[in-house]
Design brief:
Layout lengths: L6 H11 L5 H17 L2 E7 L2 E16 L2 E5 L4 E6 L6 E2 L4 E5 L2 H59 L4 H29 L2 H25 L2 E3 L4 E6 L6 E2 L4 E7 L3 E8 L11 E6 L7 E13 L4 E7 L15 E18 L8 E6 L2 E6 L1 E5 L3 E6 L6 E3 L10 E5 L2 H4 L7 H4 L6
Parallel strand pairs: 1-21
Antiparallel strand pairs: 1-20, 2-11, 2-15, 3-10, 4-6, 4-9, 5-8, 6-7, 8-10, 11-14, 12-13, 12-15, 13-14, 15-19, 16-17, 18-19
Helix pairs in contact: 3-4, 3-5
Length: 431
Amino acid sequence: MRRTMPRWTTFFAAAGRRPWLLVPLLLAIAVAAWAWSRTRATPVPVLTVRAAPLTQSLAVSGRVASETRVFVGSTLTGRVAEVTRREGGTLAAGELIVRLEDAELAAAARQAAAALASAEARLVSQRRLAAPLATQQLAQAEANAAAAAREVERNEQLLAQGFIGQARLDEAKRAADVARAVLRAAQVQREANVSGSELVTAEARVTEARAALELARARLAQTRIAAPAEATVLARHVEPGQIVQPGTRLVELSVRGPLQLVALVDEKYLARLAPGMAASVVADAFPGRPFEARIASIAPLVDALRGAVEVKFSLPAPPSPPVRLTNDMTVSIEVVTAKRERAIALPGEAVRAGPAVLVVQGGAATLRPVQTGLRTLAAVEVTQGLREGEQVVLDAAIAPGARVRAVERTAAAAAGEGLDVGAAMRGLGRD
């Protein structure tokens, strides 16, 4: 009995002899596969839109600092004789901090004092002795000149009467000329001693000696370096016996006053900050005891090397903060820059360029334009374009128009209610 072969076997046997017979079959298989892929839904994570509170905050690292920090220096070249306080010591206003050796300057001050005393004595002598003597000499010269003039007149009369000769009159005239010359000299001398150059010179010497004494005493006083105000010693940079030069930093002081917090904030966040904003602060040394602060000032300049702006925070009046803060202590500062009581917020990966989002509609991912508002590191606020209850695709790899099957993602996993820029700002809050 003759066996018959199946039709498909006959077909492939014929196709082996005629390959073009396979083309329609292959095309049919490809079309069927394409249609199957188009109708097959891809499972994608989605988030059902719900309104919830949204807070935008800025977290930075900062340090504690006093409002006034002073580096006390020397204005002289000298050897340190004494440093009165160690780190942490307190000083009253005007209290001695550092004393330089002063033997040479003290001797110079004594020498200047002696020079002043000598100049003053000469001035007193000028006023009390020389001036009266010059006055007496002037009076004597005036009397002698008057007598000589009268003697000339008398001799002229006697000569006219024939009682004396011409020689006698000539002698009287010479005596009168001498008396007038002496009078002029006495007048000049008296003027010089009473109100002229001699007195002016003596007074100038006194003024010069007094200035020299003031200078010597000022330089002597510079060997005693005192606190400009009530302060605490933060650091001492010299020890007794050390030679210092003008401008050398001797001691660093924190002038008593309210403490403040200082932080460097990246300039890209500058628009979010304003004086008066509240901040929550935690000191690294007391992690479980937060306290409040407020932005006191924002520097008008940007640090060109760091691209950061210095922001200062004021602390509340005592008894707050509840922890003991000291200079240069590190703190973590969180500033609330914006808050929404009800907002639609999506994870950042759900918002595409445009901005736009993919919304699940009729089993397909539909691209929809939206408008955005607040941004955090984890979330973006959508102000227009979405309604509560809609499902937004979270997978950035899904193309618009794709068939999708929604796989719900919990809101807790995508909330992102805070902006923590600490990772981006590490190191900016410290000097």
